[in-house]
Amino acid sequence: MYAVWRLPQFMLQALKVPAKARAAVLDGTPCQDSHKNEDHVLLCVSQPAEEQGVHVGMRSSQALARCPQIACLYRDEAAEKELQELLLQGAETWTADFESTHPGLCVLDLRRVHRLQQPGWLEHGRHMHQDFRERGLEICVGMAKTPDMALLASHAAFPVKVIHDSMTDEKVAFLELPLSVLSPPVELQQTLSLWGIHTLGELKALRRQAVGERLGPAGLALWDLADGSRERLLELVRPPVHYRQEIELENGIETLEPLMHLLRDFCQRLCTQLSHAWKAASFLHFKLGFDDGASHTKDLRIAEPTRDVEVLLRILETHLESLSASAPVMRVSLEIMAVNPSAAQDLLFDRGLRDPAKFAETLSALEALLGHDHAGRGQLLPTHQPDAFSVSPFLEKPSSTEQPADSTRGLPLLRFRPSWTADVKLQDARPIGLRSGARDLQLSDCRGPWFLSGHWWDARQAWSQEVWDVYTQDGGLYRLVREKGAWKLEGRYG
Amino acid sequence: MAKDSPPFHELHARSAFSFLRGAASPEVMMRQASKLGMSHLVITDRDGVYGSARAHHEARALGIRAVVGAELTLECGGVLPVIVRTREGYQNLCRMLTQAKLAAAKGQSRITWDNLTTHARGLSALSGDHEGVLHRALDMGDKQKVVTLMQRLCQTFGSEHVFLEIHRRRLRHEDIRLSAIRDLAEHLSLPLVASNAPLYAAQEQRILQDAFTCLRHHTYLDAAGLHLAPNAEACLKSADQMQSLFADIPQALAETARVIESVEFGLENLGYEFPSHDVPAGHDQDSFLRERTFIGARERYPGNQLTPKVRAQLEKELALISKLGFSGYFLVVWDIVRWTKENGILVQGRGSAANSAVCYSLNITNVEPVGNSLLFERFLAEGRESWPDIDLDLPSGDQRERVIQEMYRRFAPYGAAMTANVITYRGRSAMREMGKVLNLPQDVIERFTDLYANGDFPHTLKLEEQVKQAGLPNEHPRLRPFLSLYSMVYGLPRHLGQHSGGMVLCTKGLDGIVPLEPASMPGRVVVQWDKDDCEDLGIIKVDFLGLGMMAVIEEAVHTSERRGHPVPLHTFPCNDPACYDLMQKADTIGVFQIESRAQMATLPRMKPENFYDLVVEVAIIRPGPIVGKMVHPYLSRRKDPSKIEYIDPEFEPILKRTLGVPLFQEQMLKMAMVIADFSGSEAEELRRAMSFHRSEERMDKAMAKLTAAMNRKNVKEEVQQRIKDSIKSFALYGFPESHAISFAQLAFTSVWLKVHRPAEFYAALLNCQPMGFYSCATLVRDAKQHGLRILPVCVCQSDETCTVVEDKILRLGFRQLRGFSSAAAQHLLHQRAVRPWQDLTDLLSRCQLSQRDKRVLAQAGAFNALGHHRRSALWESAVPLHQDLVESATTSEASPLSAMSDYERLAADYAVTGLTVGKHPMALIRDQLRRVVKASELSLHKNRSRLAIAGMVICRQRPGTANGHCFISLEDESGISNAFVPSRLFESSRLVITQEKFLKIHGELQHQEGVITVLAHRITSLRYDQLKQARLESHDFR
Known about the structure:
The complex is a heterodimer of chains A (494) and B (1038). With 494 residues, chain A is an alpha+beta fold.
């Protein structure tokens, strides 16, 4: 027996839109393709909106004309991916053999699942439906002896339909199903529509050979799908292998040493698995659960992919040395992200990093000291705003962004972080003296002003600066900036 | 500016005509220059002098000077700004640009060093800004190359005409570059000139320049990064500001004055000469024109019609034409009209040229001006600032192109070119482009486009509200920047197109007058100025305007002749009662000018009885008279002559023919001449000052002159006010009377054809689509209503175009089929001519049509004559042709597909032909519509009764004169019903009205003087789901 799970209105369900809402999903993303003059059309329409005359292929304006309350949403790829994952995970719990050729569609081969026995198929179907309903999702379940028949059954299911060989009348009902349930290619559907073929029954009424002659292999495949009796092999989904170890402890661990013993054991097992698959670890996902319910999670990037247990352990140990917890550790899990071992070497006789493991260890220590996201590679942003930068992880390849031409010229500037607020005395709109904190500085000269401004299109981020270089009588050279009416000393040159 | 400070002139300013490299119009740049106290401003737009004419005109009005210059893109990609010193320099610049533009793809220009060397005389060169050749060379860091480059420039232009440009835009480190340039100047002994190289007039416009930068780099603001300007300093700066910036290099400021002093040239000395004609020996231009005029006059005024009055008029006109040096121009136009007629192409002069007896005698126009008392001064008068042009109406399409190409041939090389049409940022394009730049959601941009269609006048909603309706809430952080950008960009040039027919001519080479460049259309060349710029600079032009109706008339006349029913085109009587009967019933779908909804609503009230009534009808339904509230007074006076009055008794002879209502421009001129003692040219200048694209200042000045003159003549205040009101309102769009007469002639001809040669007329109309007001579907329905039978496309009978089978029967042609290639049609016709088809298989095997072509023919029912219904033909033709001997196993079987239903046939008809010769879509659902009144039955209902109408939307209009109200025309199987939608209802139902193809309108019937309208109270969509795939077309907001 095969079961087909079909998530109707997949895109809307991914966006968690209630079934009763008048909503539709638009092609594309809000700002994608903004330089193409193509109109975005609706890809998926909720039932209540459809009842108002809105249909797939309309533009949002046309939909709003028919149904002013309609919410036109953009597709959310991440949400769709998540929902698809959920569907596949669900399928995994029933059988290892399943296919998913379309998002929101899953064909399960239940023939070798011994715990599922006739005549309980309907009950199993309801169980499957209930599983998803509990997660707030609607599925239709069709079950039959062939995958294609199960697919047809899923389209006739409210919410579950089981078809046995003997149920001829039930199969006849499928003949009324529209062709669109088979998702034919657009051109093929247009041709069939011109022929007046709108249902499976009408297509099946045509001789298979005649259809093949006129519509080619695609037409034949569609005819076979409509017939539903074809035996075929599933395009099986094989879930990715997870390199993961976890343990729930009876007695909590309170010191580093036993925890490191445990982690050594984990690392050894995982590295053995990795070596069998000719893989190396590039990333460690490490999680601790404490007795008081708290948890600690850490992602640790590895400078150079490896399956050396000692290296992995050192990285973990460096991180754990700076960790203190208020309760004993009760759960430990370690997952490794596996990649192919690096085949590249930047230098002829040496690697890019002399000791990548040591480097990663140092980074880990730094991060432990400074806090998450506070250690990394400073990178100037492509903007005229001085000192606008972002921090990217050391081990990520830096993006090759353009730098302002000015950024590399002139004397080095020792930046005051944060910059010092200042009171400035002006004469003819030029600074002649300033006070910052307890310091009174007499200026002997100044250069400027230079004007910089940007991000004017968003009031929350708009900025504008008037910049001066001022020479103090004691020989100092400072950068003085006026922003939003306030003066500040940004740094000292030299 | 301090007295002893060095003067400063900006030598390198760009306007929005640098297309995405400048953010202010030339006019705004000049106004800002004037405001800053500058006496000169050099506009150096990129690769052209596009904005120079406008800058010149504005500068003259402001009392300053616009100096011509341009930024030249060299073959290396670097930019070289040049300034025109002499007329020779200007001609060199134009020729250089012409050669570069014509040698490159559209929108591109690369000037070679050879070209530059040949054309450098009379030009001064600047080293440019960061895109300039010098900066590019400095960026490379090779000092020797920099020196070589400058030495080459000095050799090309002469070292006294090469200047090193320096800038200070308040940026750190720019002095490093400046110091390098100073060193270079010292090394080569070249002068420095200070410039701010402005891209806009004032700092506020920096945001638009940033937006343009994004468009240029195909990105948006958030991602543009360092492409954007670091500050807002690239504006036009005053001498004081520049002095403070360059206090340490005063010689760089002083040098700008030296550059300006060397400039002798201004566009007032363009050197344009009117075109001349090759005249026979013994003649000059004047004498030959005189000879041709009187030869023509004797034909035009046969017998004793050539009265002394006509002779005197001809003499007067010839004297003025000769005095103004126009004789050659008239001869050129006469000759092209003669060529056109000899080649069997219909041609008719229109516009103010029809006021001239000389044009009439030369056969350029068909309106007799003396008998019609037309005012010659509207066409030509001494002392006028600009010259009128002669407009020629030609059949649109290939025939017009033949004439245009003949002009190119005659004036080759570079003697003729089309005038440009400056496409500006308007509602939808401004929204789309600025929306992209701000990265607004795409659906907001699309919805705005849907809501505010082209030509829709959003009087009732502020922009903010429009944007809100499109989905951008008030609190959106980018709403304010969007509104600013939208208002800044609105009206600025976006790109250059070509004018529909305006052609400028010059015997001695137009490329020395204005740069020429290729148009998008192959074989066409355009000048860099639009028609107003050309007019302002005294360049004369001929308008070769394509009129669809001319093509219809030409084809209908030829078809009639072929069928043995010749049409007495220039002689049929203009008092044919059947024609006026048709007009009075407003049965004018398809005819020229009087077919629009507004015209049809006026015809039953106007009830035209003679040709002049038709002239008035053509002229009165125009924005000018409507805004000036002249329509109702005219109609009520027509109904009740006791209401006729003339504003002032002196106007009676002028306004008598229009019942005291000033309708024509000639009347306005005459009124000004009578009431204010204006000369002909003064009156014409007043009219031009009032026209819509002129400045308010110019209008006020002209009106003040009129008021002063009327005050001198003690004209009563009330009369003065009425005169001024009428002048202001209809001068906007008013017709010259002669033009109205020319159009009325075409309108009458089309009515005559509709009445007396309906089959030929409708066939020609269908063949000349797209044109006019209505779609093919409506024309076919109208033809059927006039008793014609329209036969569908048929592979055995159809020609490429629609043909007349019998007096009352038409056959659609293959051209009517969408997606059916012309090559396939030709091949099919060729094969059919060899021998008739035996059956469908025979046709398919002989024609080798593509799957798509076969499907279109089958879908349209074109195979029906071969014994197939549409579906069986689709089935049969879907089998690929087997070139071998193996026959398909199933081709001999009968088609298993059932014939199409009525709905399906209708959908198929609309999909492939856009019309149906069968039942109207509304007829198919009539029995489902309850309490909906057919269009033909509306007249049976009482005035003010409440009812509903429904149908296919064929027209939505929201004219600028209608205060936001909307007019909708719905078509059903019995005719057309019209609805008036008040602005409030329009706003609340905007999306339903603009997006739905079928509507149901509930409202109150208004039945007045034979005009029936439904005042809409409620509008809903009529869900014609069965036909949702039918591609129905309406005439929206056009």
